[in-house]
Amino acid sequence: MKARTLFSISLLVLLGACGDTFDGRAVAEPEVKEFHELLKAKDFEAMYRRSSTDFQAAAPKEKVLALYAAIDRKLGALQTTKQINWSVNTRNLVTTVVLVYASQFQDGEATETFTFRVKSGEAELIGYNIASFDMLIK
Prior knowledge:
By secondary structure, this protein is of the alpha+beta class. It has a single domain (2-137), classed as Nuclear Transport Factor 2, Chain: A. 51% of the residues lie in helices and 35% in strands. The protein has a 4-stranded antiparallel β-sheet. β3 and β4 form a beta hairpin. The chain starts with a helix and ends with a helix.
Protein backbone atom coordinates (compact mmCIF):
# COMPACT_ATOMS: atom_id res chain seq x y z
CA MET A 1 0.00 0.00 0.00
CA LYS A 2 2.80 2.44 0.88
CA ALA A 3 4.58 1.70 -2.39
CA ARG A 4 1.42 2.47 -4.35
CA THR A 5 0.95 5.79 -2.49
CA LEU A 6 4.58 6.74 -3.04
CA PHE A 7 4.29 5.87 -6.73
CA SER A 8 1.13 7.97 -7.05
CA ILE A 9 2.74 10.98 -5.39
CA SER A 10 5.85 10.63 -7.55
CA LEU A 11 3.71 10.44 -10.66
CA LEU A 12 1.82 13.60 -9.69
CA VAL A 13 5.07 15.50 -9.08
CA LEU A 14 6.44 14.33 -12.42
CA LEU A 15 3.29 15.32 -14.27
CA GLY A 16 3.32 18.72 -12.56
CA ALA A 17 6.85 19.31 -13.79
CA CYS A 18 5.83 18.24 -17.29
CA GLY A 19 3.27 21.05 -17.33
CA ASP A 20 6.13 23.55 -17.29
CA THR A 21 7.79 21.62 -20.11
CA PHE A 22 4.67 21.67 -22.27
CA ASP A 23 3.69 25.26 -21.45
CA GLY A 24 7.17 26.72 -20.96
CA ARG A 25 7.43 28.47 -24.29
CA ALA A 26 3.96 30.00 -23.99
CA VAL A 27 4.77 31.19 -20.46
CA ALA A 28 8.12 32.74 -21.45
CA GLU A 29 7.12 34.51 -24.67
CA PRO A 30 5.08 37.27 -22.96
CA GLU A 31 8.11 38.01 -20.78
CA VAL A 32 10.12 38.85 -23.92
CA LYS A 33 7.37 41.19 -25.04
CA GLU A 34 7.43 42.89 -21.62
CA PHE A 35 11.25 43.14 -21.78
CA HIS A 36 10.99 44.87 -25.15
CA GLU A 37 8.24 47.22 -23.93
CA LEU A 38 10.42 48.26 -21.00
CA LEU A 39 13.40 48.69 -23.35
CA LYS A 40 11.30 50.96 -25.59
CA ALA A 41 10.27 52.95 -22.50
CA LYS A 42 13.93 53.12 -21.40
CA ASP A 43 12.91 51.73 -18.00
CA PHE A 44 16.16 49.86 -17.47
CA GLU A 45 15.66 49.68 -13.69
CA ALA A 46 12.38 47.78 -14.18
CA MET A 47 14.07 45.46 -16.67
CA TYR A 48 16.67 44.64 -14.05
CA ARG A 49 14.12 44.24 -11.23
CA ARG A 50 12.09 41.76 -13.31
CA SER A 51 15.09 39.47 -13.76
CA SER A 52 15.82 36.57 -11.42
CA THR A 53 18.14 36.78 -8.44
CA ASP A 54 20.47 34.42 -10.34
CA PHE A 55 20.64 36.91 -13.20
CA GLN A 56 21.24 39.78 -10.79
CA ALA A 57 24.00 37.85 -9.02
CA ALA A 58 25.78 37.09 -12.31
CA ALA A 59 26.62 40.72 -13.15
CA PRO A 60 26.74 43.96 -11.21
CA LYS A 61 23.59 46.06 -11.56
CA GLU A 62 25.55 49.03 -12.93
CA LYS A 63 26.94 46.92 -15.78
CA VAL A 64 23.54 45.50 -16.68
CA LEU A 65 21.98 48.96 -16.71
CA ALA A 66 24.89 50.22 -18.81
CA LEU A 67 24.31 47.39 -21.29
CA TYR A 68 20.62 48.28 -21.62
CA ALA A 69 21.53 51.95 -22.08
CA ALA A 70 24.14 51.02 -24.72
CA ILE A 71 21.56 49.00 -26.65
CA ASP A 72 19.27 52.04 -26.72
CA ARG A 73 22.07 54.50 -27.50
CA LYS A 74 23.77 52.47 -30.22
CA LEU A 75 20.86 50.65 -31.85
CA GLY A 76 17.98 53.00 -31.19
CA ALA A 77 14.37 52.06 -30.75
CA LEU A 78 13.25 48.50 -31.39
CA GLN A 79 11.31 48.33 -34.65
CA THR A 80 10.47 44.66 -35.20
CA THR A 81 11.35 41.33 -33.72
CA LYS A 82 10.84 37.78 -34.93
CA GLN A 83 11.38 34.57 -33.04
CA ILE A 84 13.85 32.44 -35.00
CA ASN A 85 14.54 29.59 -32.58
CA TRP A 86 13.42 28.16 -29.27
CA SER A 87 14.04 25.21 -26.99
CA VAL A 88 12.56 23.83 -23.80
CA ASN A 89 14.49 21.50 -21.53
CA THR A 90 13.50 19.97 -18.23
CA ARG A 91 16.21 18.43 -16.09
CA ASN A 92 15.88 17.49 -12.43
CA LEU A 93 12.39 19.03 -12.42
CA VAL A 94 13.77 22.41 -13.54
CA THR A 95 12.46 23.72 -16.86
CA THR A 96 14.61 26.08 -18.91
CA VAL A 97 13.29 27.90 -21.97
CA VAL A 98 15.58 29.56 -24.51
CA LEU A 99 14.02 31.97 -27.01
CA VAL A 100 16.07 33.49 -29.84
CA TYR A 101 14.89 36.58 -31.74
CA ALA A 102 16.10 38.42 -34.82
CA SER A 103 15.48 42.03 -33.85
CA GLN A 104 15.55 45.10 -36.05
CA PHE A 105 16.31 48.35 -34.28
CA GLN A 106 16.22 51.87 -35.70
CA ASP A 107 19.98 51.91 -36.26
CA GLY A 108 20.91 48.25 -36.63
CA GLU A 109 20.02 44.65 -36.12
CA ALA A 110 20.73 42.09 -33.44
CA THR A 111 20.15 38.54 -32.38
CA GLU A 112 18.75 38.39 -28.86
CA THR A 113 18.80 35.23 -26.77
CA PHE A 114 16.60 35.05 -23.68
CA THR A 115 16.91 32.23 -21.15
CA PHE A 116 14.11 31.69 -18.65
CA ARG A 117 13.53 29.33 -15.78
CA VAL A 118 9.87 28.28 -15.71
CA LYS A 119 8.36 27.01 -12.50
CA SER A 120 4.69 26.59 -11.62
CA GLY A 121 3.63 28.52 -14.70
CA GLU A 122 5.89 31.53 -13.98
CA ALA A 123 8.92 32.53 -16.07
CA GLU A 124 11.91 34.40 -14.71
CA LEU A 125 14.77 35.73 -16.78
CA ILE A 126 18.04 34.00 -15.93
CA GLY A 127 20.06 35.02 -18.98
CA TYR A 128 20.12 37.62 -21.75
CA ASN A 129 22.56 37.88 -24.63
CA ILE A 130 22.59 40.32 -27.51
CA ALA A 131 24.81 39.77 -30.55
CA SER A 132 25.07 42.72 -32.90
CA PHE A 133 27.84 43.84 -35.23
CA ASP A 134 26.03 47.17 -35.55
CA MET A 135 26.21 47.68 -31.80
CA LEU A 136 29.88 46.72 -31.63
CA ILE A 137 31.10 49.10 -34.34
CA LYS A 138 29.19 52.19 -33.17
